[in-house]
Design a protein that fits this description.
Blueprint (H helix, E strand, L loop, with lengths): L2 H25 L1 H22 L6 H14 L3 H18 L3 H12 L38 H18 L3 H9 L6 H20 L2
Helix pairs in contact: 1-2, 2-4, 3-4, 3-8, 4-5, 4-6, 5-8, 6-7, 7-8
């Protein structure tokens, strides 16, 4: 076999592989959505990190602990911690509850899916349909970590507006989950207490 023939064969193999990838993506809308919104997620992460100039020592401790515990990269974890504290200040919420919820629900996996319609880093339930995703670009934003975190936080805020009790609000949020809502709520509350100790360390 000549060198030219080997090159042609190699290119044919590469072309076939690329065609196969294209077909797989075309046949799987969710995979396509993930690839598209992964790029948007990286943009959001960079933006969040850039604007977190006032990152406190407490936020840094929480970021390091969660990053090690759940094997999340420093920048994505820092972005979500900054987002949690910003939303908490805006809506008078506890940022550690938001972070504990995301940790228990998905281990900060933006592609998490519980099989019952709840997806993303907060396993956000489909309570508002596609309308809740319109500010972030539409239905596929469910898999964007920052957008999903914001929508999940909003639903938690609404749950506490009905009943300000921490456990009652979490139970309302997790009521549509496939797993036992009471058990999930207890895990979130236990992790919340752990994060409070981490945040308080000198």
């Amino acid at each position: 076999m000549t060198y030219q023939q080997r090159v042609v064969d190699a290119l044919a193999i590469v072309g076939g592989a690329l065609l196969l990838v294209a077909v797989v993506i075309a046949l799987q809308p969710r995979l396509q959505s993930v690839l598209e919104y992964r790029l948007l997620q990286l943009v959001d992460v960079s933006r969040s990190v850039e604007t977190a100039d006032d990152f406190s020592a407490e936020q840094s401790r929480v970021t390091r602990w969660l990053g090690r515990q759940y094997r999340v990269g420093r920048q994505p974890m820092r972005a979500l911690v900054a987002e949690a504290y910003a939303l908490a200040e805006q809506w008078q919420m506890d940022p550690l509850v938001l972070l504990a919820t995301a940790a228990v629900q998905s281990r900060f996996n933006p592609l998490a899916d519980n099989g019952s319609g709840a997806v993303g880093v907060m396993l956000t339930p489909p309570l508002g349909g596609d309308a809740q995703w319109l500010p972030y670009g539409g239905h596929n934003a469910r898999f964007d970590a920052v957008a999903n975190f914001r929508v999940g936080a909003l639903l938690l805020r609404d749950a506490w507006a009905v009943n300000p009790d921490l456990e009652a609000g979490l139970l309302r949020y997790t009521a549509r989950m496939r797993d036992d809502p009471a058990a999930v709520t207890q895990r979130i509350m236990t992790l919340h207490q752990r994060l409070q100790r981490v945040a308080a360390r000198a």
